[in-house]
Amino acid sequence: MGDIVEDEATFYSNAEDYWRDIPPTVDGMLGGYGGISSIDINGSKAFLQKFIGEGEGKTGTSCALDCGAGIGRITKRLLLPLFKTVDLVDVTQEFLDKAKVYLGEESKRVGNYYCSGLQDFLPETGRYDVIWIQWVIGHLTDSHLVDFLQRCQKALRPNGIVVIKDNVSYEGVVPDEVDSSICRDLEIVRNLVGKAGLRIVHEEQQMNFPKEIYQVHTLALR
Length: 222
Hints:
InterPro entries: MeTrfase_NTM1, SAM-dependent_MTases_sf. This protein is α/β, with parallel strands linked by helices and 222 residues long.
């Protein structure tokens, strides 16, 4: 991917500039596809419920991290209903400020709001049962993604999981000039996960999304 991202600093700063101009709304977070939010959340809930609960090897429900959280759409509808505490990390301070309002009463169960790009973010060791990374890996270079996944692994509690949910291209790496991101195919994502020393414990495709957008796959990693 080195050739695609010619200048790492520009790749990141262009993305920050793009998001700075996006309205802090669900529709803004979803690039005009606000209507798919419920389908997305329901699919994610069904996916997560395979892991959490009582019993041997199950993932706990004390604390989750929402990566690229935006205004907290996923925190509000997926994570706060399932976890005691949720932390949010996003590169855009305005989104995090809006999250405090958008999350309403439940925002008192947010532990931390971190304003940071994931390439620079160091999650606290041993804090999280679930680290949820949705629609944001395209903003990381390959080496930064591998490094970040390694930091995530150290941040997990016993039986914790890292979840990546993202668009996958049909073949290779497809750049998006508009928001300064890239879309990788599934094989490339799997290879980067392996490079980070994680294994995929479950993987599925999100169904019922509009035909014109890239397929979305969800991967649970340990």
